[in-house]
Each structure stands twice: as structure tokens, then as C-alpha cells.
Amino acid sequence: MPYLKIVSGKIVEDGLTRSRACRQVRSLKPNVSQPRILLEETLNDAGFFELYDTPKPDGDVVTQGEPELQDDGSWHQTWHVRDFSEDERIEQRHALLALLEEARKNAEAQGVVINGIRYSGDPSNRAALLEVVQFAREAGQKEFQSWKDSDGRFHPNHRLEDVEQALHAIALRRGKLIALEGAYQAQVRNGEIEAIDSLSWEV
């Protein structure tokens, strides 16, 4: 628990550890022998009081208030609670929409698995897949001598057909993810979603 230093009923220092408060008390009487562990009463007599926690309440905006002196002489933490302003709600929704887009892109990047091989769905890999497929088609190539998958593993004699299937599956999955993002966006704008951590991106 943190300690406060009180002088004439006013807080002059806060966030003190008990050991620091004890050192300050000892420094007030450096020539007086004192016990190894100071009693709470000794600290209080010198103006140092433990600050007791109070449960943080729920609310849109919750901030710490000034500690308050209770009837029993103890000091307790206080809280201020208020609703979001309209500007803050708009800003929060914009932030959530940006997080939604980022989460959808992360889901896209997981890609697809075709015959035990993963193909990432991030933009750079989609472009690379499309490029090698086009090259292979133009060259009449049916397979790749060595293929490096999105997990860094190599596969000999990898079929072009599998890569084409992966491209198709990635595009299909991406469309579903974009549709899901759109549904979530509508819920954000309606105030039905206030956090995205628990949202599912299974499609």
C-alpha cells in the first residue's frame, strides 16, 4: 500500500513506500533509538498515513480522484466516473473501425491450407502466388521443382494445380472476411460492439 504525507490536513507527498516513510520518520529524530519496525501509530503521529485502495468502478471514463480522509482517520482512494462525450464516442468508434480492419487483415494473413501446405493470404504473398501461377501457365509448367511454403518448409515437385487452388481459396476466404468486417462495422456504428478482442474471424 502507498503512503501519504499529511501536513496540516493537506497532502504534501503521495506514492510513498512504507520503507521510505519510515526513513523520513527516523530522519526527524536521528539521535533517538527506534525499533527496527516502526508501528503504524508512530508513522501516523509523524504525519504518514497508509492510503487504502477502493474498488475501481465501472464507467466510460474512470480517473483517480484525490484521496479522502474518512471518519475513522484513515485515507482512502477515490474515483471520478463520467460518460463519454459525443466527440469521444465518435473517436472511439473510429479507433474500433481501424482495429477491425487490422484484425481482418491479420485473419487474412493466416491464409489457407491445401494438402497440408499453408499459403499465406497477406497482400505480398497473394501477389507472389499470382505471379508464379501466371509464369507457370505461360511456360506450360505443371509443377515447381521446389516450393517454399508460408511456414518456411520446402516441398519438391509441387503441383501448379495446388497453387491455383490455394489462390482461389484465399480469394474466397478474403471475400468472406471482408463481409464479416462489414457486419462488425455496422455493429460498431450502432454502439453494439465496444471492444473487438472477443470477436471471431472464423469463416
Task: Report what the structure shows.
The protein has 5 helices and 11 strands, in the order ββααβββββαββαββα. It folds into 2 domains: 3-82, no CATH class; 86-189, no CATH class. 44% of the residues lie in helices and 23% in strands. The mean pLDDT is 95. A 5-stranded mixed β-sheet has the order 2-1-3-6-5. Strands 4-7 form a two-stranded antiparallel sheet. The chain has a two-stranded antiparallel ribbon with strand order 8-9. Helix 3 runs antiparallel to helix 5 (160-189) and helix 4 runs antiparallel to helix 5 (160-189). It has helices at residues 18-28, 40-45, 86-110, 123-139, 160-189, and strands spanning 3-7, 10-16, 48-52, 61-64, 68-69, 75-76, 79-82, 112-114, 117-119, 143-148, 154-159. The chain is an alpha+beta fold and 203 residues long.
Structural descriptors:
203 residues, alpha+beta, 2 domains, two-stranded antiparallel sheet, 5 helices, elongated
Estimated helix fraction: 40-55%
Average pLDDT works out at 95
Number of helices: 5
- Count of distinct structural domains: 2
Which structural class should the secondary elements be placed in? Answer: alpha+beta
Order of helices and strands: EEHHEEEEEHEEHEEH
Radius of gyration: 31 Å
Q: List low-confidence stretches.
A: none
**General shape:** elongated
Side-by-side strand order of the widest sheet: 2-1-3-6-5
Query: Would you count the extended β strands for me?
Result: 11
Strand content: 15-25%
CA-CA gap between termini: 48 Å
Largest sheet: 5 strands, mixed
